[in-house]
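Task: complex structure prediction.
Instruction: return structure tokens for all chains below.
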Amino acid sequence: DVKVTQSSRYLVKRTGEKVFLECVQDMDHENMFWYRQDPGLGLRLIYFSYDVKMKEKGDIPEGYSVSREKKERFSLILESASTNQTSMYLCASSPRGGTNEKLFFGSGTQLSVL
Amino acid sequence: QKEVEQNSGPLSVPEGAIASLNCTYSDRGSQSFFWYRQYSGKSPELIMSIYSNGDKEDGRFTAQLNKASQYVSLLIRDSQPSDSATYLCAVKALSNFGNEKLTFGTGTRLTIIP
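Output:
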């Protein structure tokens, strides 16, 4: 089974802190995604990566950056955390193209910024 | 206008009845459509994908697609309490740089009443 592992289930940070959310997948998938999920707003795409060192902005990239130095690892960085970044963060991966377009999600990181 | 729209619910359906979930999308060029199920406190999981106009059946689930009306639906027959969850409609689109990304609706919360 594909496994997508997010480093923390719960995280509490202070306003202004630099925050790293880590995601690792073990199925050699090319594509990796970071979403945030908020009540009433659904899943919104922050950034995604389609190859090592390649990244593209999603729908709400402001205040975030990402890093993908190795194929299996995709990191989300909050440069200076703010209270409006309190949210559930979900990482996902998928193989590129073909008929297998299933997204495999991690278990999520609930981030609280105080 | 949101790219993918769903009625947020909650939708309550008696056990054994048919649950009908609806979704509309704005990008007329979209070709791939998905339904994800998300239990409370869990990550989304893929339950159906559909690519061609018409119906696609998988057990108690039927996905329906009408590209002319830009409309996707999910029918759940013989609803069970275990079907109580939030159902997310997702549409695959191309980014400005031609890379594939998945855009989600806000989800419909379904409750099956025993």
